[in-house]
Amino acid sequence: MKILIIEDEQELLYEIKSYLEKEDFICEVADMYNTASEKLSVYHYDIVLVDIMLPGGTGLDLIKTLKNIQQDTGILIISAKNSLDDKLYGLDLGADDYITKPFHLAELNSRIKSVFRRRKFNGAVEIVHNEIKINPDNKAVYVKGKKIALTKKEYELLNFFIANKNRLLTKESIAEHLWGDNIDLADNFDFIYTHINNLRKKIASAGGSDYLLTVYGMGYKYID
Amino acid sequence: MKLIHKINQRYLIYSLAVLILLGVAINITLKIIVADETDETLEYTYKHVERLIKEKQQLVLLEPFISVELIDHAWESRCFSDTILYTELNESEEFRQLTVIKTINNNTYKITVRESAIESGDLLETVIILILISLLLLFGMLFYLNMRISKSVWSPFYKNLEKLKNFSLQKMETFRPENSNISEFQELNETLKSLTGKLINDYDTLKKFTENASHELQTPLAIIRSKIESLLEGNELSPVQAEKIKSIYQSVNRLTRINKNLLLLTKIENQQFVKIEAVSIKKSILEQMEYFSELTELKELRVDFRDISDWILRCDKTLIEILFNNLFSNAIKHNIRGGAINIQLENKKMIMSNSGTKPIENTRRMFDRFYKEAVSDSTGLGLAISKQICLVLNLKIEYHFSGKMHSFVLLL
């Protein structure tokens, strides 16, 4: 999968790039409107991450041009502005998702994968990891071919873990993924623990192995 | 004390003093005039009596008004005096008298002429009463007129005072004072206008500062957070370093949350939620119940929703979502295991209560920004956001604690 990251903050750009490269994505970067515009007109990308405020222009204009030349590219807006107007406008222009800074890299990764899936396979493709199979279409999960009943949050949790295999998922990033950032979740980490335990039990009872590793004090890891 | 009353009080006190002084002065003057007149009359009567004696040797007697006595030789003298005599009706009466001892035609006479003082006293009294009554009437009328005029003259002032009381920076409305043709009030209005204008400007700058600061912080925060996450991912940290990085990470996350909430608060204050539609509170509550159902189950909470009737508000749906999201997460967070959440919805009233152990101590400050009762990781902005939303939506939010239940009441 080939990704273009358009972001003017060098440090953030570098972190995003190195995180995504560990996922075996091919990443190219642009830190200005002009370079981004050039790259978009020459190369083809599966996914474009675009910051709205750029030196030399706005990311929204880039989305407009991109929509004219590459219909099938997935677009994800990264913005420092948590503005509903910008979000709606961006989505209207044809962006697939909108993520507000500061985000967790794991969250970004999971969003990219989901945009890619939607774009490439219309969301119909199944996510398979060893004996676990997820059907995003009807949100069903199968372990060794047997359907297991997961709650909404458990389903989201499993998806988040599989999208970020072998990555440390901090409790904070999990909480934000499950509950958004509207509420004060400072002491809701207990709930995550319970959700994860239930998920473990459900997978184990269907005969699946335990891929969830607790990283003491920090969070969890889903290992291969 | 109201200005009008104060003025009237002073007015009354001074009027009364003036009235009393006037009364005394009138009394004295009239007395002097009447006494002069009486004395003149006595003089005149005496002259008449004297002439009669001198020319016709006729002694006029008319007790008690005129009495003439022949006396032994004495020095001539004349003097006015007051005296009291008993009349035939056996009543004592006051008289003014002129006693003259004079030698006429070689006879010495003591001639006394008297004039009843009562008559002139009566007159005096009547006159004084009449004057006092007219003065009282005059003062009364002035007092009334003063009241009336004050009321109409001061009415723009009172209207402006009322407007000033209702003036709120958050509403972002410019202050429009009541016009008046009184130059002092015009000056006051101008001052108020410029003062409130400056206030609004300053407040605006402050809000912009908060907004800009929060926005500008987002990117550095994103960088710090992603750097720390990549540090934690790698295995090159010693346990001590990992521990330190972890604590930095937690602080950054806290900072991020505070920043996001401050941004949200600023956005609500700036009234940037303007997609007005008819929002069903019942639907919103049901959505939040569904959203939090797993959390409530995990904490074994009984959620009871009694909807007596729906409540439709015309506002931005996002605000209602945030409001109920906050209220719900509070009700879960500050609950006890196996506790309850009771929601009651009527038209224009919503009560959400949850089990708790002890009431919030400082209910006056509980809606303030960053106010926390105990040391916790929470940002202390949740209730401030709820309050701000209520302010924008013109709702009242109240807190009660009774029967080991915290209750939040929303009212129109």
N to C succession of SSEs of chain B: HEEEEHHHEHHEEHEEHEE
Low-confidence stretches of chain B: none
Largest interface: A-B, 41 and 46 residues
| Overall radius of gyration of chain B | 47 Å
Structural class of chain A: alpha/beta
Overall, the morphology of chain B is rod-shaped
Structural class of chain B: alpha+beta
Number of strands of chain B: 11
Could you name the ranges of chain A where pLDDT drops below 50 across 5 or more consecutive residues? none
**Mean pLDDT reading of chain A:** 87
Helical content of chain A, roughly? 40-55%
Structure, described:
- The complex is a heterodimer of chains A (about 220) and B (about 400).
- By secondary structure, chain A is an alpha/beta fold.
- Chain A is built from eight helices and 14 strands.
- The two termini of chain A are about 20 Å apart.
- The mean pLDDT of chain A is about 85.
Write the layout of secondary structure elements.
The complex is a heterodimer of chains A (224) and B (412).
Chain A: E1 2-6, H1 10-21, E2 26-30, H2 33-42, E3 47-51, E4 53-54, E5 57-58, H3 59-69, E6 74-79, H4 84-93, E7 97-100, H5 105-121, E8 127-129, E9 132-135, E10 140-143, E11 146-148, H6 152-163, E12 168-170, H7 171-179, H8 189-205, E13 212-215, E14 219-222
Parallel strand pairs in A: 1-2, 1-3, 3-6, 6-7
Antiparallel strand pairs in A: 4-5, 8-9, 9-10, 10-11, 12-14, 13-14
Helix pairs in contact in A: 2-3, 6-8
Chain B: H1 3-56, E1 66-71, E2 77-86, E3 92-104, E4 107-116, H2 117-166, H3 183-233, H4 239-269, E5 276-280, H5 281-291, H6 293-298, E6 302-307, E7 312-316, H7 317-333, E8 340-346, E9 349-355, H8 382-392, E10 396-402, E11 405-411
Parallel strand pairs in B: 6-8
Antiparallel strand pairs in B: 1-4, 2-3, 3-4, 5-7, 8-9, 9-11, 10-11
Helix pairs in contact in B: 1-2, 3-4, 4-8, 5-7, 7-8
